[in-house]
Amino acid sequence: MAVFVALGAFLMTLAGGWVAQRVTDRRHLVLGFAGGLMLGVVGLDLLPEAMEAAGDPVFGVPAALLLFVGGFLVAHLVEGLLAVRQVAHGASGERVPQVGLTAAAAMVAHSLMDGIALGAAFQVSGAMGLAVALAVISHDFADGFNTYTLTSLYGNARRKALLMLFAAAVAPVVGAATTLLFTLPEELLGGYLGFFGGALLYLAAAEILPEAHHTHPARSTLLCTIGGVGFIWLVVGIAE
In Å, what is the CA distance from 224 to each residue of 21, 64, 76, 87, 221? Predict the structure, then answer.
């Protein structure tokens, strides 16, 4: 059942990527909406789940929050190292394609964990599985949208963006299938969600939103960002 439901996530991920590539003439609005989706996913979905599942505090701080900060710092460090390497090869001032591929790979890993979470939920009960399925299928549209946007934003060819999109679409199906073989510890899942949330927040705040507002009127872009957050809020509310 989990694998069958994951096929819905596969289709929604592809749909999100298709929308992202069809609106290139309104790129600033796409980026604004993508930034809102990312902020919504982090603040309203990933972090609350991580806080609930990541286990005992470490020296007075919830483990999920420590990993959240760690994910933010690692994303910052990786981007800095890649940028320095690019400058050393004479490409100063250009976006680093590897950053986009790394970010997209993180989205693929997140989609894989979505599938694992889906399979684990069905292991508990059918009702819980259906509730998680609604959340996964709905927000995988955002995952597909963001995977394609992140890959192409950093100057990667359309072929690579489509390849990463397809990988993100297949990942939930693979993740759900693996739960037929093992059960994922709740603390490990919570820690991953916290770390990934920090990395995603860095990309949204330091890259996506500044690019969206760089050369275009802020009002329409801001409305798209708010719309992205509101969409995730709606998805989370329906899932609850």
Answer: 16, 29, 25, 33, 5
Cβ–Cβ contacts within 10 Å for residue 144, how many?
29
Give the amino acid at 164.
M
How many CB atoms are closer than 10 A to CB 89? 7
Per DSSP, what are the bridge partners of residue 58? 61
Amino acid at 223: L
Tokens of 109: 């890993």
C-alpha 117: how far from chain center? 15
Over the stretch 161-173, which tens digit does the pLDDT of each residue have? Answer: 889 889 989 988 8
pLDDT tens for each residue of 202-225? 878 887 777 777 766 678 888 888
Task: Give yes or no for a contact between 191 and 14, defined as CB atoms under 8 angstroms apart.
Answer: no
Question: How far is the C-alpha of 207 from the C-alpha of 212, rounded, in Å?
Answer: 9
Question: Rounded distance, CA 234 to CA 42, Å?
Answer: 14
The amino acid present at 59, given as its one-letter code, is: F
